[in-house]
Design brief:
By secondary structure, the chain is of the alpha/beta class. The chain has a single domain, classed as Alkaline Phosphatase, subunit A. The chain is built from 15 helices and ten strands. It holds the Pfam family Sulfatase.
Length: about 375
């Protein structure tokens, strides 16, 4: 009995040290969740689609597009289309969702379009009963962004930048207190930088191809300026062009936008790695809100429950705690609802919500 008591005392004395050691294993102090709206896993893992790249119905200049993005093998094509993903993330991080290996990532919501997808990504659970349209309705659910913003360590250090103007409602900017800059909203507040002032002017002067979605270059540069000034610890960045170009049947613009978004993420990563506040202590989690169809051919433009395959998605993780396994070739089933808890877990926070959330992506965590 005395021995048992002594063991118990020793364990109690060691517990703080054990907890501290577990916390020290996480090097991540900052998390950036990044999305490509409606970007297919097929292009990510195979590059330009053979059936679409030469189809004049979808491509204005097939010769130019092939010169930029065509190669005979899928490995060469994907490297040309997404060089940062395949030169950096594939070497230092993880890529999930190549269904040829049985590595499956799916939406758990039954809608397969944007608002339900972003709700699932950011809250960690599907809510088909309440989130079943893209209408600008305040989200009744609490996102991981709002959850973290209520923690003392992250208060005022959470922000979101998106090309689609529905994000203030998805994140519930009013209730959450999370700064959201989306759609054609300009940078605001005191002490705007010269670049922010210029972006505000330029955004008003250029044509607007879509009423609800601005060009991704504005989202990217507004976000970079915010990072430089405010040093957020948690940021959501959503690029929207890929979905809108696809809906418009412009495969050339869809590929070009995906290529540019890959470049935006590279520039963001390099900027983060150049700053002491972020270098070697920041994780990127990159994914999409939904997939797209494949057959018949014109279904690449569409998604939703009537379009087979548009629940098929992907994600990528790059950061100091994530083992460098590259393209994940082990068979397994993952879901969109796992992103929120993965982000919180990497930050050393236990994330809970009113509904059960998806579990953290285990292979993306240290020692897993």
């Amino acid at each position: 009995m005395i021995k048992l008591l002594r063991c118990g005392v020793v364990m109690l004395l060691l517990l703080p040290a054990m907890i501290g050691t577990a916390q020290q294993k996480m090097k991540t102090e900052n998390v950036f969740i990044i999305t490509f709206d409606g970007y297919r896993w097929q292009e990510l893992f195979h590059g330009a689609d053979r059936a679409l790249i030469g189809e004049k119905k979808y491509v204005e200049d097939t010769t130019a597009l092939k010169k930029n993005f065509w190669a005979e093998t899928a490995v060469e094509r994907r490297q040309k289309l997404m060089p940062f993903f395949w030169s950096v993330i594939a070497q230092k991080g993880q890529l999930y969702g190549n269904r040829e290996y049985g590595n499956l990532v799916n939406c758990s919501n039954g809608m397969w379009f944007s608002y339900p997808g972003y709700n699932e990504i950011l809250c960690g659970f599907a809510d088909d009963a309440r989130i079943h349209s893209n209408d600008k309705l305040e989200n009744p659910n609490v996102t991981v962004l709002e959850f973290l913003n209520k923690q003392a360590a992250f208060k005022g250090k959470v922000a979101a930048f998106g090309s689609w103007d529905v994000f203030p409602f998805i994140i519930h900017e009013k209730r959450s207190g999370v700064l959201v800059n989306a759609g054609y909203e300009p940078a605001s507040g005191a002490n705007l930088s010269e670049r922010e002032k210029f972006l505000n002017v330029l955004q008003n002067e250029l044509p607007r191809p879509w009423s609800e979605v601005r060009m991704d270059g504005f989202t990217h540069h507004y976000a970079l300026e915010y990072i430089a000034k405010q040093k957020p610890r948690v940021m959501f960045i959503s690029f929207g062009e890929t979905d809108d170009f696809a809906h418009g049947g412009k495969y050339d613009a869809y590929l070009t936008s995906a290529h540019q978004t890959d470049k935006f993420i590279e520039l963001l990563w390099n900027e983060l790695q150049s700053q002491a506040a972020y270098k070697d202590k920041t994780t990127l989690i990159i994914t999409t809100d939904h997939g797209r169809g494949t057959e018949p051919l014109d279904n690449w433009r569409s998604h939703g429950t009537k379009v087979t395959g548009s629940d098929q998605i992907w994600f990528a993780v790059l950061g100091p705690d994530t083992p460098a396994k590259g393209e994940m070739k082990e068979a397994g089933q993952y879901y969109q609802n796992q992103v929120a808890k993965t982000a919180a877990t990497l930050l050393g926070v236990t994330y809970e919500n009113e509904k059960k959330t998806g579990e953290a992506i285990k292979p993306a965590l240290p020692g897993k």
